């Protein structure tokens, strides 16, 4: 008989003599640990603090009977295999118990060998359940890595590279399109490194004006500028012994680039208003969705800073480069948001999966996650269908230059095509970013003011956008 290591049996019966008999006779034959209790309440209490593989419980007991015990046990401990004991003449009750989740039942008085055989099968069932759960866990582990999901060659290569990078303490530059998971990669590198017990401080560089970003990064002395009412350590010092993650490093000003270069070279910072530098022990991870080589060419990014940052690099693949991961990502986000929104686990219809597989995903995994989360929240049934998707996922097959435009004068035709392009392009980008102008501008590769000018020129405005602009 194949038994679980340290297999444990819980016996529940209100007859003391039966408990002693069963415990004495079964211990040797089953080669397992046995606990015996005289009532269901005691059994439930014991199950809360101890692990058992099989429970053998009498149906008829004073107070809480075996049926109620079974119901509570299957709710709180579904992996526990329960065998019911019943007196002759209570067969109907035993059959009902099986319908409610009992593995099997045995009638009293019972033959010892028959009971041993039945309990042996019950232990085997529990063993198979444990093996299945372990297998499922291993499959999930193979499909995910540090909150990143996928099995494609490109993403598996990223996982392996992160493991290698984590064993070092040098600066890392993570590149890739918006929404590809650069922040998840940075956090994974930190968690797997020797600095994992230290802080992880994330800084979104474009979100702060230059003067505020500088004071936030390096700190300041009281009185260094107006409203500097007290000393501030700064984020570099807050990250002492850990990692600081500079998100979208390609957007910082030339002045900040120079100061950051000094930090990378000398491992020290100088808070605003202070004459002495302060040594810092932090690992720097930076990311960008910009083409830094092009920015170096047009002299908007320092070449020496680039080489200081790019000691080790990680290029995150776009979702278009790993379409085979889309079904796994869909399932991952369905599970995540069904649980988060307190809804039954939903699934995507085959039609929706095919639509997702054919979509270009300009916003990458973030765009996919946003769409799935909205679909989980808004879909009325357990299956998410195309009509539950709240924005037009299919790419238009319409020609960029409609036939009727070709009959217009060149300048007029050009103006109409450009207006149509700008309206549709900007509207879609805004929709993907929940009408957040700052995030939409970042995805477009434009400055926020430039995107606002396009919006004003083509009257791309509504109440929601106006309220977002006011809030920002």
Give structural notes:
By secondary structure, the chain is an alpha/beta fold. It has four domains: about 10-140, Rossmann fold, CATH 3.40.50.2300; about 150-315, P-loop containing nucleotide triphosphate hydrolases (Rossmann fold, 3-Layer(aba) Sandwich), CATH 3.40.50.300; about 320-390, Helicase, Ruva Protein, domain 3 (Orthogonal Bundle); about 405-470, Arc Repressor Mutant, subunit A (Orthogonal Bundle), CATH 1.10.10. The chain contains 19 helices and 16 strands. The chain has helices at about 15-30, 40-50, 65-75, 90-100, 110-145, 155-165, 180-190, 210-220, 235-240, 255-265, 290-295, 305-310, 325-340, 350-360, 365-380, 410-430, 435-445, 450-455, 465-470; strands at about 10, 35, 55-60, 80-85, 105-110, 145, 150, 170-175, 200-205, 245, 270, 280, 285-290, 310-315, 345-350, 385. It has a five-stranded parallel beta sheet, with helices on both faces. It has a five-stranded parallel beta sheet with strand order 9-10-13-8-14. A two-stranded antiparallel sheet has the order 6-7. Strand 6 (about 145) and strand 7 form a beta hairpin. Residues about 395-400 and about 465-470 have low confidence and may be disordered. One of its GO terms (molecular function) is DNA binding. Keywords: ATP-binding, DNA-binding, Nucleotide-binding, Phosphoprotein, Transcription, Transcription regulation, Two-component regulatory system. InterPro entries: AAA+_ATPase, AAA_lid_NorR, CheY-like_superfamily, Homeodomain-like_sf, HTH_Fis, P-loop_NTPase, Sig_transdc_resp-reg_receiver, Sigma_54_int. Pfam families: AAA_lid_14 (PF25601), HTH_8 (PF02954), Response_reg (PF00072), Sigma54_activat (PF00158).
